[in-house]
Amino acid sequence: MNALHAARLALESELLHALHAQEFVVYYQPRVDLVSGRIDSAEALIRWRHPQRGLVCPGTFIPLAEEVGLIEPIGNWVLDTVFGQQARWLGQQIDVVPIAVNLSAAQLRNGKFVQNIVDALSRHALPAHHIEFELTESMVMHDVELAAAHLQALKKLGIQLSLDDFGTGHSSLAHLQRFPFDAVKIDRAFIRDVNCNAGNAAIATAVIAMAHSLHLRVVAEGVETEGQLQFLRRRRCDELQGFYFSEAVPAAQFETMLVEKTLLALGHQVDEDTLLIVDDEPGTLQTLRRLLRREGYRVLTASGGQEGLNVLALNRVQVIISDQRMPNMSGTQFMRIARELYPDTIRIILSGFTDLAAVTDSVNQGQLFKFMTKPWDDGELVRNIRDAFRLHRQRNG
Ligand SMILES: [Mg+2]
Question: Does CATH number 3.30.470.20 belong to domain 2-260?
């Protein structure tokens, strides 16, 4: 017991020293979008560059740091490091992705937590949407009211929130509704043998379906094989993280991946999601085609309603986006015919005009899923289109 106690004391003082001696370092593990294969965020993971022991993983020192009250300063150091790094990348015009930072219960319990985040963001002049926080349910259980207030405030700032290690520990389904999460990360324990263990496959499938119904994105943790990847794609899981794509890497290496736009080869499309865009403006067609091809869809285009109907006759199309004001045939007319001939299609109008009578008319006649206005927000458009394909799948089994 004495020896154990002495070892702990030594580690404790080493930890304190490490904080001041800058022995900690942040690694970044990319997360990949399962439709486009692109890196769409990363998790910041702390490592300890120990002068004698080499690179130490958090599992060995974070629990102790929690016990001895060092977790908060260490957590704050990680926040500051990540915020600073993101701000530098932005300054270098690098196409950054949101970086997810793991929070600790101690940070969340601090009454000044939100203010500290606001201060840190402004210190680095970093817009909040470049940051995401990961937290586990046990952290919010401690003081549900305070946690809910903090999370709502963070969400209002524009920070994304994800629920970490879902499926282990306290997995209260009520929390998914109560807290403003954007994403759920399925714990690696369910992913490990998801393509050969029927029980885990059923759990992963159910979590994905439930999260989607609650409009949450789903991230699979610990994906290591192609089999797991294809299983998750078939179940329409949104993102993966794991060795199959990349381990956690130092900042410089992650920067290279961002700059080179490293892609995950997803292989053969599970079944091709096909989209038709109808617009008489060649420039708009081209911009939309480029944006949506990147998302992994098969994209068909037409410069008018008549041509659009021809395309529909020759192809299986699930989602249609159409301009409103076009010569010969308006978007409203086109959508009404498309609805009658292809009632399964999910229809979206993207219009430069928002005259109320025209909007009402086209929504009613075309039974639209969405009426969106130009200029559009790329992120919102992409989300709406994903939702449209999802709805199509739900309705058609
Ligand atoms: Mg995490």
Answer: no
